[in-house]
Amino acid sequence: MKSLLNTLTVVVMLAVVSIANATPEQDKESFQRFYTERFPDITMEDFGNGVYALDQDARNQWEAMNDFPPYEDDLEKGGELFNTAFANGKNYASCFENGGGNIRQNYPMFDTKRNTVITLELAINECRVANGEKLLPYKKGELAKIAAYMTSTSEGSPINIVIPNNGKALAAYQAGKQYYYSKRGQLNFSCSNCHIQNVGRKARSETLSPALGHTSHFPVYRMKWESFGTLQRRFDSCNKQVRAEPLEGQSEDYRNLEYFLTYMSNGLPVNGPASRK
Amino acid sequence: MQAYKLTLKLLFTVMLLVVTSSTVIAEEMDGKKVAFDRKKGNCLACHVMDNGDMAGNIGPPLIVMKARFPDRAALKAQIWDATVKNKISIMPPFGKHKILTDNEIEKLIDYLYTL
Asked: Cis before residue A219, ω within 30 degrees of 0?
């Protein structure tokens, strides 16, 4: 039965990947259908809760912990940082649409002038540089706190990643998709090996979460980190697990990966920042 | 005198037996360590085996190995590079990617055959 299930998943997974030259829209539909058919009892929204949508015991502990969210102080700090003026008197709000409020759901976006993917974290740092401030380290620290605050202002807004119908944007999307399905590291895993092919199964005591909803709640406050980390910090964790070299924060590969993966969750509400173990 | 010689011989044989059987046990232990150690095989991440703690369920349980894998070479091939048989196998290619040495894999297989 199990091996039959295995074979079935593999077949489904191949169907998810192999539609050569499928449009992003078609990819997204088969991607989301794969999970909703696999887990018919999980609502679209609940996929954003990752492993806690699958594992009731883990969920109970998590919910108890969230009575006093471990990230509250850091989130508040993020708000203060966001609202503190730069030396030149301007502030973050001046760099973003809508004063930076309720925009998380549009990131990452493709900049058709520069022909590259712009993540929220990159945009925050570019805002700093444009105003004569120095770059903050990506992945954690103040930048992650600011991004967490900005994410909190988008609570409930549906993820709305746009892939302009232009060669460069499609190429960025394809590169991210390619990264997701390619095996890497000494242990030879692809992201899809764990989060699609073996979703819901256990690797040792860890339940493997669905990739649908993976980006809806970042930055995440991980108990293991005792701080906020951006999505790309989480990519590092998964890369290290398979003994692959983590990439530079905001490297082109990571930005393209983030673009692909976030597009796959289009329509799901932003529900971050969140806590994870 | 004759009896004494015999006892000596017996003692010697017994000692030899003890020595060889404990190396067998040591080797089995080695193989088990290769299988269980998270930095080595970490087979428990995916396979239920030998009452190991908190085993995963990504791969099939590793049981009655001798009956199921009478051909040692076939078992070795699965461990060496599982992607030969199943292109998208999630099982790490322990030999091909030098995650384990050839010697470790041989010991591991000896151990698997005790399951």
From this structure: yes
A238 is catalytic: yes
Beta strands in A97-154 (DSSP E): 109-111, 116-118
| pLDDT per residue as tens digits for the range A220-275 | 999 999 999 999 999 999 999 999 999 999 999 999 999 999 999 999 999 999 99
* Among A152, A184, A199, residue at a domain's last position: A152
Probe site for chain A from B37, B42, B90 (most A CB atoms < 10 A): B90
The last residue of one of the domains, among A104, A129, A152, is: A152
SS3 B51: coil
Model pLDDT for residues A35-49, shown as the tens digit of each residue: 999 999 999 999 999
Q: Could you tell me if A201 lies within 8 Å of chain B, comparing CB atoms?
A: yes
* Token couple for A35: 């999970």
Looking at the structure, do residues A59 and A43 belong to the same domain, yes or no? yes
Q: Is there a contact between B98 and A189 if contact means CB atoms under 8 Å apart?
A: no
* CB within 8 Å of chain B, chain A residues 204-243: 204-206
* Residue type at position A3: S
| Contact (CB<8Å) B93/A188 | yes
